[in-house]
Amino acid sequence: MKSFKIIVLAKQVPDTRNVGKDAMKADGTVNRSALPAIFNPEDLNALEIALRIKDQQPGTTITLLTMGPGRAADVIREGFFRGADDGILLTDRAFAGSDTLATSYALAQAIRRMGKFDLIIAGRQAIDGDTAQVGPQVAEKLKLPQVTYVEEIIEVSKTRLVAKRRLERGVETVSAPLPVVLTINGTAPDCRSRNAKLLMKYKHAKTVSEIQSANEDYLHLYNDRPYLNITEWSVNEIDHDPVQLGLNGSPTKVKKIENVVLQAKDSRITSAADEDIEELMKELIASHTIG
Amino acid sequence: MNNVFVYCESEEGTIAEVSLELLTKGRSLADTLKCKLEAVVAGINLQDIEKQVLPFGVDVIHIAEDPRLDPYQTLPHAALLINLFREEQPQIALMGATSTGRDLGPRVSSALHSGLTADCTGLEIGDHEDKKANIFYKDLLYQIRPAFGGNIIATIINPDHRPQMATVREGVMKKEIRDAGYKGEVRYLEVNKYISPEDFVVKIIDRHIEKSKVNIKGAPIIVSGGYGVGSRENFNLLYELAEVIGAEVGASRAAVDAGYAGHERQIGQTGITVRPKLYIACGISGQIQHRAGMEESAQIISINTDPDAPINSIADYVIIGDIAEVIPKMIKYYKKNTK
Question: Which residues in chain A land under pLDDT 70?
């Protein structure tokens, strides 16, 4: 029996995809607190790829690793509801201000602490930054090969896997030795829904920090059912070089942030009435813009 | 030492457009910095490749010709750049924000502990004062990009680490030959000095790459659809209009994500940047990421049911209405008035 130890990297992100009017402030800038925090979409694709391996290879375990503030424990609970076995929240003020490189360093150090594994699977990129850097950088930090933009795992043995990659203008099939870092493209299958049984089992799963502020009536749960404890690691739980963490460990600095405020152009507004459209088309033809 | 480097992608002996665009940008950065522009090309069929590259004002081209370097693979190309950059100490390194550049850039930047900014829409040279540490940095690379789903524009710098790395999408920079007879030095790299056998642990089993069928970048007129188009079927209306007026069809990211159009048609920061003489935006709300890819169009028409859609503020003409109603009328009156 082949069973695998899989680590899925996931990030909680603000849902920047549909910034509605209610998320805009009067001055035309975005009210970030109005955006819901979600499981980064391509990280869900990554979780599904891991779950499919687990479906085929019983005994496989999936551990979610996420770095973020305390509320990012939501990502781990969501993973439990869909079939992940374990989860670790890496959270500390020391990580604040991390760019992709400092983030990759912290994740790689946490992964070293987690012990032996066969596969690291992450989404291609997170929708709040769209950089697609953390997967390859984690791979480099761990001196592992990387296979990016994966949309399907064709076969996996104890020593190698074959995966299909989606490139800009085509597909490529590669064979890579384990352990390996995969990043999963949004064209991979969507993640399965929450499982009702798992939802019941894990709905009270909490980190130590959350348990401390929880209703006292429930506290016995966390002794009786150890699986409800979400592992929470601070910077002290990982071996680290302080100069590589957080803002200090980030080669890139933000010099300036400008909110996008639209400068209105003098536009001509017309209706969809026949005579208006005809006049516009005549004008475009006359000016040789079209035709 | 301390020059501007551009990693050039090549396919069957032809340098990729995005790389030529970056050489043009690299030349202007090197002019400002009064340093050399250097290019790196790795792969096969590279005889005479310098003839395509030097006219962009390239002072030195590094050529790594080896059958093992084609097609592109992460580890050998990364090893080549990492070791070359360790020797040459570039101050700036640019690459295309392509499937290749976005796979390679982070690997190289991690190994060199240098900063990398993805999908820049602007690159400029400027100074920076760190008031807290009381340090003045002269001539840094300002890496400008939309962030946070395109709702802010950030200027990123790498004050203390080199090279300052950035990726840029195709079409963002303009391609321009500096001098057809530009004289530059050609250096052939001894590949085995940079790459080790362990860099070939990943094997490519099969590869299907299509020639790009869609020529959005060169199209004079683009009919582009957003999430507001509502369905794949409605998207067919855009193809009909494009067919009649001789246009190419584009799409916003939201439309591509919704499955209305293929990735090759995506316009915007994470797609292609276009500058047609007419851009017809159908049901596109106009987030900055999309506008970054089309706002330099000579004329813009927005068709939208929402009078307050952000795109309307940069449009020359705004038609308030449903595309299912408006587009057939445009086709009808175009035909009527061109006969």
Answer: 1, 17-32, 260-264
Contact criterion met (CB < 8 Å) for B107 and A146: yes
Q: What is the pLDDT of residue B153?
A: 85
Min Cα distance B273 → chain A (Å) is 15
Q: Does B103 touch chain A (CB under 8 A)?
A: yes
Whether B87 and B235 map to the same domain: the answer is no
**pLDDT score for B215:** 80
Query: For residue A143, with 0-12 CB atoms within 10 Å meaning exposed, 13-18 middle and 19 or more buried, which class applies?
Result: exposed
Can you tell me the ipTM of this complex? 0.90
- pLDDT category, B227, cuts 50, 70, 90? very high
- The pLDDT, as a whole number, for residue A32 is 65
User: In terms of CA atoms, which chain B residue is nearest residue A258?
Assistant: B153
Would residue B114 count as lying in a domain?
yes
Question: pLDDT digits over B300-334, tens only?
Answer: 999 999 999 999 989 999 999 999 999 999 999 99
Q: Report which DSSP code applies to B66.
A: -
Alpha helix ranges (H) inside chain A:
41-56, 73-82, 100-114, 134-141, 196-202, 208-212, 219-224, 274-286
Average pLDDT value for residue range B74-80: 98
Q: Assign residue A288 a region (left: φ > 0; alpha: ψ between -120 and 50; beta: otherwise).
A: left
Total structural domains within chain B:
2
Same domain, B180 and B277: no
Angstrom distance (rounded) from CA A76 to CA A155: 27
User: What tokens does A96 get?
Assistant: 């604040």
Radius of gyration of chain B (CA): 22
pLDDT for the residue A22: 62
The CATH code of the domain that includes A21 is 3.40.50.620
CA B186 to chain A, closest CA, distance in angstroms equals 31
Indicate if the pLDDT at residue B128 is higher than 80: yes
> Count of residues for chain B?
339
Sign of CA dihedral B70, B73, B76, B78: positive
Any chain A CB within 8 A of the CB of B98?
yes
Residues B319, A276: C-beta atoms closer than 8 Å: yes
What CATH number did the domain enclosing B319 receive?
A: 3.40.50.1220
> Structure tokens of A121?
């699977």
Closest to A255 (Cβ–Cβ): which among B142, B326, B334?
Answer: B142
Residue B202, pLDDT above cutoff 60: yes
| Dist. CA B61–CA B189, nearest whole Å | 10
Please provide residue A87's backbone torsions phi and psi, each rounded to the nearest 5 degrees: -155, 150
DSSP H or E segment with residue B329: helix B323-338
Is B74's CB within 8 Å of A270's CB?
no
In a domain, A54, yes or no: yes
**Quick check: is B207 in a domain?**
no
Question: Could you tell me which residues are beta bridge partners of residue B300?
Answer: B279
Indicate if the pLDDT at residue B21 is higher than 70. yes
Domain-located, residue A79: yes
Give pLDDT, residue A164. 97
Q: What is the pLDDT of residue B241?
A: 95
Helix (H) or strand (E) holding B118: strand B116-120
Confidence at residue A29, expressed as pLDDT on a 0 to 100 scale: 56
